[in-house]
What we know:
Elements lengths: L40 H13 L2 E6 L10 E7 L28 E7 L3 E5 H9 L1 E9 L7 E9 L3 E5 L5 H9 L4
Antiparallel strand pairs: 1-4, 1-7, 2-3, 5-6
Amino acid sequence: MARTKAPERTTHDAYIKPKPAFDMDTLVHCGPDIEVVEADADFRKIAEDAAFMNELVQIRFLPSQDPNAPKLVELGVNTAGATGKMRAPTEDYPAGKPGVAATGGKSVKKGFERGRVYAIPRYLVEAAAHAKIQVLEQSSHPRNPYEIVQTLRDSFLYPFEVINDPNPKGRAWLDRVMSDPA
């Protein structure tokens, strides 16, 4: 009887043993603890946040004591970008370039006269609260006139006051936003 030589195996002939599918309802030994949550929980939170930021708040921009201050308060908000649509896919970024706004995103630009009351969405109030400037003030030291004291002072570019905020959480939100650094 003649012996036949077994053919040589190559990598594409190798047999890979199939692994069982991971069962999401069981805990695998030494595996991650997976918490199964309701499918709409994240979407519901996003929808609640969006509804909160679109609530109308009555606001008045205060007159400025600066004679060079603009007479019209201009606020602009672009909702596209890191949290919205991204620019079209490229070779380097097949899913779109993150953090770069796509064309056609929601862009809101409004102008407000100082001293009048307006009902505006909360996201525009946040834009006004984040419009801050820092000024470096220099003065002589009270005890040593040859020494200069430098003080960094933050101020709002468009000072405003909230006339009416119907949401009970609105005051705490406004305090947190107003305390953000410049």
